[in-house]
Amino acid sequence: MSKIYNFGAGPAKLPEEVYEIIRNELTNFENSGISLLETSHRTSTYMNLNVEVQNVVRRLLDVPANYKILFLAGGGLGQFAAVPLNLISRTGTADYVVTGAWSAKAAKEAKKYGKVNMVLPATDRYVDIPDQSTWNLDPNASYVHICTNETIHGVEFDFIPDTKGVPLVADMSSNFMSKKVDVSKFGVIYGGAQKNIGTSGVALVIVREDLLNQALPICPSLLDWTANFKMDSILNTPPMFAIYIMGRVLQWIERQGGLDAMAELATKKASLIYNIVEESNGFYYAPVAKNVRSKMNIPFRIGSEGNAALEKEFLKGAEALGLIQLKGHRDVGGIRASTHNAVTLEEVETLAKYMKDFYKTHSK
Ligand SMILES: *Cc1c(COP(=O)(O)O)cnc(C)c1O
């Protein structure tokens, strides 16, 4: 079979080296004679892995000692509920900065558990992040929620908002571990693993310890950060295999040179695509404002209004070359190239060449 180039947004590509490791470790984990898939989560074998994965998270992100690291079932959506369930009790109200489909979904989920203040004016065309001086922040909010990278709309924060002491909570599902982040500026960071750091089913949650112990009484134990922390993330049987894969991906990131190396690579890959868009005399069109263009998910159209026939032809031609999962999300249409951590520069160069060729043969 010829090579497949996977530009899917998530579950996204995993590093080839990690597949090799998983293959080798699948049936005999750490010389236990059995697979991790049939190992009890209460064994020292699993607890060693649990600590190993926590440690690599700490090293990569320089996580300060007063932050706890949790591995929780239920992915990103699970945490959309967990955030208000664990934090909104302080004042009963929370600020949501909606910059795309995912933060909109997070806000909608939070409304089930308290009052939600929309910080930005409502829109369905997410192409920018308004200047912070225009934000309608509520000083009484229990927390301020942002999504640092909108996977569908391709809008990525290029700054950390100043929330005047109100805990900042960030959904980093689709740009987790793609660059260095000053964890101390956040109250909570969370994300599903399947975009940049592993496979689906698990959320990585990093929570400042003073934000524990305030869950609403109705909070399910499964989503209760404090209950999970007290049990070292084995309150119930955790998604052990997904946590294991996350650990192996994070160790791979370390071997690549850590988050600075990931950031450099991400910039190179994204620039390749955006530059072709910019140099196409309007043939390709990227709707997002330049300063907040995502380095992980690059949505673009053919023509500013989107030429459906040409876009279809583009996608068909791409698939014929093995360039797959490039169709834009149904909410925005067009084309989306996701260039998550495991997508190589060579793979993006192949897409870039296809884009150039397609432009040459189809522009007047
Ligand atoms: C994919 C995604 C989610 C949802 O993750 P699930 O694990 O599918 O629940 C949440 N937020 C962002 C930014 C995402 O990209």
UniProtKB/TrEMBL annotation:
Its cofactor is pyridoxal 5'-phosphate. Keywords: Amino-acid biosynthesis, Aminotransferase, Pyridoxal phosphate, Serine biosynthesis, Transferase. InterPro entries: Aminotrans_V_dom, Aminotrans_V_PyrdxlP_BS, Pser_aminoTfrase, PyrdxlP-dep_Trfase, PyrdxlP-dep_Trfase_major, PyrdxlP-dep_Trfase_small. It comes from the Eukaryota. Gene3D superfamilies: Aspartate Aminotransferase, domain 1 (3.90.1150.10), Type I PLP-dependent aspartate aminotransferase-like (Major domain) (3.40.640.10). The keyword Repeat does not apply. GO terms for cellular component: cytoplasm. Its EC number is 2.6.1.52. PROSITE patterns: AA_TRANSFER_CLASS_5. Pathway: Amino-acid biosynthesis; L-serine biosynthesis; L-serine from 3-phospho-D-glycerate: step 2/3. Residues 4-351 form the Aminotransferase class V domain. GO terms for molecular function: O-phospho-L-serine:2-oxoglutarate aminotransferase activity; pyridoxal phosphate binding. It catalyses: O-phospho-L-serine + 2-oxoglutarate = 3-phosphooxypyruvate + L-glutamate; 4-(phosphooxy)-L-threonine + 2-oxoglutarate = (R)-3-hydroxy-2-oxo-4-phosphooxybutanoate + L-glutamate. GO terms for biological process: L-serine biosynthetic process. Belongs to the class-V pyridoxal-phosphate-dependent aminotransferase family. SerC subfamily. HAMAP family: SerC_aminotrans_5. This is Phosphoserine aminotransferase. It comes from Antheraea pernyi (Chinese oak silk moth).
